[in-house]
Structure formats: C-alpha cells, structure tokens
Amino acid sequence: MTLSKMTRTAFLAALVTMGAGTTGAMAASSADELRAALVGNTFQGGMGGGVYTSYFAEDGTYVDAAGGGTYEITEEGVCYPGTDFGCYGAQIDGNQLEWFQNGESVGSGVIEQGNTLE
Fold first, then answer.
1. Of all residues in the chain, what percent carry a pLDDT higher than 90?
2. Cα(41)–Cα(89) distance, integer angstroms
3. Secretion signal: which residues (predicted)?
4. If you compute the radius of gyration of the chain from its CA atoms, what whole number of angstroms results?
5. Are 85 and 66 in contact (CB under 8 A)?
6. For residues 6 and 68, is the Cβ–Cβ distance under 8 A?
7. DSSP H helical segments within the chain, as ranges?
C-alpha cells in the first residue's frame, strides 16, 4: 500500500470514527452536556412513531403524559433504571436533540426552557 493510499485510508477511518460518515452523525454529547441541556428543562419531540413531551426535574425524576419515573445521566446517555427503556445517547446542537440507541437514530426534537408541562 502506498503512503498516499495509507493516508487516505487513515483519513477515511478517522472520519467514520468521528461520526462523519455518510449518515451525517456527529459525536454523542457528553454526560455533562446532557445534564446542562436537559435537567430543569423539557424535551418535546418524537420517538417510535409518536410525539411526546418530557420534563427532566433536578431530583432525577421525569414527568410526561404517561406519568413519569426516574432517570440517570451517565456516559451512556440518559438511562431509565428499572424499565425496559434502557439508555439513549444523544446529540445536542443548540436546542435540537437527536436520540440514539444501539448506534441508530430513534427520535429527535427540541429542548424547551423550564417545565412546559405546567
């Protein structure tokens, strides 16, 4: 393999690793970025073919139309302990958020300031 071909291969591998492949995906937001964006605020958007609104309280609980429960923000993303939901990674760009699970986009929406459910 020539140096030029090796450099090109390494560059393409780096792009895919950083999430700049054909899907246009960016790197997942960190736990600190998720906390800063979600805690004390409301997410409104879609997932699984439906639209929902969920407020993320400072005490580790969330509230939505189905009632709510507890959440944890870890390096894996937003996790829902004791449920079948598991964890969702996220990419945040301004007030836009896209949810990911197992490397696949599963929903998106906007982050609204405060508790818009009240």
1. 69
2. 17
3. 1-27
4. 17
5. no
6. no
7. 3-17, 31-38
CA distance linking residue 90 with residue 38, whole number of Å: 11
Who has greater pLDDT, 26 or 13?
26
pLDDT by residue (tens digit) across 14-69?
323 333 333 344 578 999 999 999 999 999 999 988 999 999 999 999 999 889 99
Host H or E run for residue 65: none
CA distance 68 to 94: 25
Buried-exposed string 54-92: b where 16+ CB fall within 10 A, e elsewhere: bbbeeeeebbeeeeeeebebeeebbeeeeeeeebbbbbb
Of residues 45, 74, 46, the one with CA closest to residue 60: 74
Burial of 47 (0-12, 13-18, 19+ CB in 10 A): middle
Secondary structure element (H or E) that encloses residue 41, with its range? strand 41-47
